[in-house]
Amino acid sequence: MTEKAERKLNVPHSSKQVRLNEIQDVLADEGYSADDRKSWLKAVLTELSSAQAESPSEDREQLIKEVRKIIDSNQSGKPLADDVL
């Protein structure tokens, strides 16, 4: 297996705020499967929602909306990008 194929996506914990550019980097990286990306996004959403419940933040709320939008758009059967060459 290649090094990229062996990598695992780490879910950021609420003590470290994930940023939109980090999410975009994961979505753009070809080393992760669609299932890995989807699972990671859902885990990020869970962490963000938990942190938002404990300490509301307008920036975090915007990020939560963006993550939900990405997840919803990928579940509709219309991927944001093709996985074919």
- State mean pLDDT (0 to 100 scale): 77
Give helix % range.
Answer: 55-70%
Q: Can you summarize the main beta sheet?
A: none
Give me the number of helical elements.
4
User: What distance lies between the first and last C-alpha atoms, to the nearest angstrom?
Assistant: 20 Å
Q: What is the H/E order?
A: HHHH
Query: Which class of secondary structure composition applies to the elements?
Result: mainly alpha
Tell me how many strands there are.
0
Strand residues, percent: under 5%
* Low-confidence spans: 1-6
What's the Cα radius of gyration? 13 Å
Specify the overall morphology.
globular
Secondary-structure topology with pairs:
Layout: H1 3-6, H2 20-28, H3 34-54, H4 58-75
Helix pairs in contact: 3-4
Give your account of this protein's structure:
There is one protein chain. This protein has 85 residues and is mainly alpha-helical. The protein has a domain at 32-76. It is 61% helix and 0% strand. The protein has 4 helices and no strands. α3 (34-54) runs antiparallel to α4 (58-75). The two termini are 20 Å apart. Residues 1-6 have low confidence and may be disordered.
